[in-house]
Amino acid sequence: MSFNLALLDAKEKNKIELDKQASFIVWKMKQAKAGPEAISSQLKTIRSEEEREWFQSSVDKYKRVMGVL
């Protein structure tokens, strides 16, 4: 089954983008190319509390999946 992401509303597109950013930051941490400060730095750029919570939950999810402490 395929989905056309272009048809999603702006809020859903942003959630996907935040999830991708969280995945990338955790991957960089696993590769020792970034530290935990990368997460806090990214959190400071997010204005909405709801989006910050979404980003943090995505970070937590990818930390579990990738085995990053």
Record keyword descriptors for this entry:
PolIII_theta_sf; single chain; globular; mainly alpha; 3 helices; DNA-directed DNA polymerase activity; DUF3283; DUF3283 family protein; DNA binding; 69 residues
Verbal overview:
The structure is a single chain. The chain has one domain (9-66). The chain has helices at residues 10-30, 37-45, 49-66. By secondary structure, it is mainly alpha-helical. It holds the Pfam family DUF3283. This is DUF3283 family protein.
What is the fold's blueprint, element by element?
Layout: H1 10-30, H2 37-45, H3 49-66
Would you kindly provide a brief summary of this structure?
The protein is mainly alpha-helical. The chain is 70% helix and 0% strand.
Computed Rg: 13 Å
Give the H and E element order: HHH
The overall average pLDDT, rounded, is 96
Helix content: 55-70%
Please give the largest β-sheet. none
Percent of residues in β-strands: under 5%
Q: How would you describe the oligomerization state of the chains in this entry?
A: single chain
Using DSSP, what is the number of strands?
0
> Residue ranges: pLDDT <50 for 5 or more in a row?
none
The structural domain count equals: 1
User: DSSP helix count?
Assistant: 3
Structural class: mainly alpha
From the spread of the alpha carbons, the general shape counts as globular
What is the rounded distance between the termini? 34 Å
Protein name: DUF3283 family protein
InterPro entries: DUF3283, PolIII_theta_sf
GO molecular function: DNA binding; DNA-directed DNA polymerase activity
Pfam families: DUF3283 (PF11686)
